[in-house]
Structures are given as C-alpha cells and as structure tokens.
Write a structure and sequence with these properties.
Oligomer: single chain
CATH architecture of one domain: Orthogonal Bundle
Order of helices and strands: HHHEE
Helix content: 25-40%
CATH topology of one domain: Histone, subunit A
Structural class: mainly alpha
Number of helices: 3
Radius of gyration: 29 Å
C-alpha cells in the first residue's frame, strides 16, 4: 500500500493552493493513498490489445454554417427604439467599473 507522508500532502495542497489543517492532512493522507493504490491496480490491467478511445457513443459535433437572415433582424433604429438613453447610436448604461474617488 502506498502511504503518502504529511509533507507530501502539504506539498500537494500548496500546489493546489488549498489551505489544509493538520486534521485534514491525516484525512487526505488516507484518501489520496487509496487513490494511488487504485491507480496502481489499474496499471496492472493488460490493455495491450485495447484500442484507445476518446468517447464511446459515436456522436460527432454537428455544425451549421453561420448565416444571417436579414429578414429576421432588427435595424439599429428599431433596436434602440426601446430606450431613451443612447450615445452615438449605442445603448447608454451606467458604468460597471469606476475608479475610487
């Protein structure tokens, strides 16, 4: 059985930028050690005659051309007709980011 040390757990936590308490270190020692044991077990499986796959459903991405239907578009004037607050033919909205004054 692979047993990770507390130093290794703390190093992994540091790499993941996760704060880990001493109590959690012991808990993660057991859990991550079991994960590594399972990976070792999987590495023992003979996969020499197994074809690599990225997915098993046979589905493929369906793409369509990006076409604009000019009969189903708003003119700029129509798009802006629902607001009174415009500037240079754009919607005018309150600032999202402001400098501290």
């Amino acid at each position: 059985m692979t047993k990770l040390t507390s130093n290794q757990i703390e190093h992994i936590a540091k790499l993941a930028k996760v704060d880990v308490s001493k109590k959690e270190t012991g808990k993660f020692q057991d859990q991550l050690s079991k994960v590594l044991d399972y990976i070792d077990e999987l590495n023992e499986v003979d996969t020499e005659n197994t074809v690599p796959t990225s997915q098993t459903t046979g589905l493929e991405n369906i793409k369509r051309s990006d076409e604009i239907d000019i009969n189903n578009c708003l003119s700029q004037e129509d798009a802006l007709s629902g607001t009174e607050s415009t500037h240079n033919n754009y919607f005018k909205v309150p600032a999202v980011f402001e400098e501290n004054k």
